[in-house]
């Protein structure tokens, strides 16, 4: 919002929400080939691409690279974001106890490592079908910190007695033309990332029971969730910008403006951290499943399990292969998060790289082939126009994020990030 202002910000949010909703409905229809009730199931995103667009071709390879690279990048982004929220709790308490006299500089490394340790434990959840409880907790936390952020934004506006911000965002003069351009492009990527769930949509849809058809249920879920999500995004974005104007922090709950009531800020940041713990698991499950499926075809050790009785719970099946490889996976995301702890820049780049291929390109191509939409028909042209506009937006966002990361790297020493 601060980069694009009161005109561009709302328009971009509406654009991404509308495109994501429409494309998600197209993607939901790709869960089954043929009949929506009895047709062949496509349990994963890449399986749908292989079934509809063909296996072993360029589409197959491109989809695999895009989906798994972006899911991996998202895990890194969530590790950074989760650790920043954990640090914010420590900093707000430090400011409160010192009366604002202590600058309270804190290294991010211990908090990134702590987040990683939690993920090592949770990564032993076998698959999507057994993480319902974690998803529910994450959703509750999401509502909690959104409402807190919105409430604090409203309180700040009331305290200021006016709505801050401008029609076009941060003015040229305060920043150079190049910085303004990169900032707007990065903002596009941040908003695109906020709506990026298409790459795990079919994996989630695979957990839905039928009848009615999985596509019918998923479409209804898409409509409700996108409506709620877009509403919260706009409310929080608008009130945050109204509260701080062009100097709005990248994250309201970790920005400099909110230290009182510090306990409420702490609750909000704790909710963010818990939410991201669950979101991390949701986004890495497709990677876990794909690697383990491929490994099982080669090595019998993958299927070895040991039952461990946990008091009050059903026996847990511990897989040595899963324990070792998933732990190594979390270690790599933790290491890279420590190496490049640039929250907004990383999120912008991930959003830019993932939005067009996973949210727009593949749903459009699969829908055209599956529904036999005639080339050059009105619907075909409209879908291609949306795809072209989306790739332009994605490229612009990627350029902006890369430029911002390059600037950050000039001032940054690896593994020594202080906030």
TrEMBL record:
Coiled coil: none annotated. This is Amino acid transporter transmembrane domain-containing protein. It comes from the Eukaryota. GO terms for molecular function: symporter activity. It is found in: Cell membrane; Endomembrane system. Keywords: Amino-acid transport, Auxin signaling pathway, Cell membrane, Membrane, Signal, Symport, Transmembrane, Transmembrane helix, Transport. The keyword Lyase does not apply. The chain crosses the membrane at residues 133-155, 224-243, 263-284, 323-340, 346-364, 385-407. Residues 1-404 form the Amino acid transporter transmembrane domain. Its main location: membrane. One of its GO terms (cellular component) is plasma membrane. GO terms for biological process: amino acid transport; auxin-activated signaling pathway. Residues 1-28 form the signal peptide. It is a multi-pass membrane protein.
